[in-house]
Sequence to fold (103 residues):
Amino acid sequence: MTLSQALQGVREEVPFMLGIPDEYGVLVEAEAAAQIAEAAGLTAGSPFGPTLGNALARIEQRPVEEQKHLVGVAARRYAVTAPPCPRPAPAVPSPRPAPGRSR
Fold:
């Protein structure tokens, strides 16, 4: 599977996997493509501009193993620079009524 083949389904799958609205799938796909292009040392420019398309076309000409490697590099780079996911605060028990009082 080449890089462009893998990216084609991202738009439809990511909203389901991340629990985000469907219309944001294209944004996730574009960001992933830009990260991969930058990992290859190519200028990505705008995620929706022609520069990114040209960069992906150049990556597509590389061997599949190299394409997989670039995806791994981009994923590791993103994992290091991505803001941490907020963790839910621990639940605080509700106060109990004082003994001897009733309503």
Remarks:
- The two ends are 68 Å apart (CA to CA).
- The CA atoms of residues 11 and 28 lie 7 Å apart.
- The helical segments are 3-8, 10-18, 25-39, 50-60, 64-81.
- The chain has one domain: 3-81.
